[in-house]
Design a protein that fits this description.
11 strands, 0% helix, elongated, mainly beta, single chain
């Protein structure tokens, strides 16, 4: 099993920046894609950005040009740099890690970190 520890959330004014981190530990063998999702009150959880083991990235249209995802494979850590934050970015942000081991795919989620952007 993989343990995911997220950090970096908080309260920021519109236009500000935050950097989220998610460190994976435990049974990290086979980790491939890592990503960030978010869930706002009354809305479904949605993809923010993800990154493959080869560092190919994918972003939601709403965050393109403002957010940057990156990873450090030596630390099994994924980052989300969030700039030019808007009130509509307010949500709980969840780290998601997928693994592929011996032909079996699994997914693990972090506990979530709150991001609040004030206007």
């Amino acid at each position: 099993q993989v343990q995911l520890v997220e950090s970096g959330g908080g309260l920021v004014q519109a236009g500000g920046s935050l950097r989220l981190s998610c460190a994976a530990s435990g049974d990290v063998f086979g980790i491939n894609a890592m990503g960030w999702y978010r869930e706002a009150p009354g809305k479904q959880r949605e993809l923010v950005a993800d990154i493959t083991s080869g560092s190919s990235t994918n972003y939601a249209d709403s965050v393109k040009g403002r957010f940057t995802i990156s990873r450090d494979n030596t630390k099994n850590t994924v980052y989300l740099q969030m700039n030019s934050l808007k009130p509509e970015d307010t949500a709980v942000y969840y780290c998601r890690v997928s693994r592929l081991r011996f032909g079996t795919r699994s997914v693990d989620w972090g506990q979530g970190t709150q991001v609040t952007v004030s206007s």
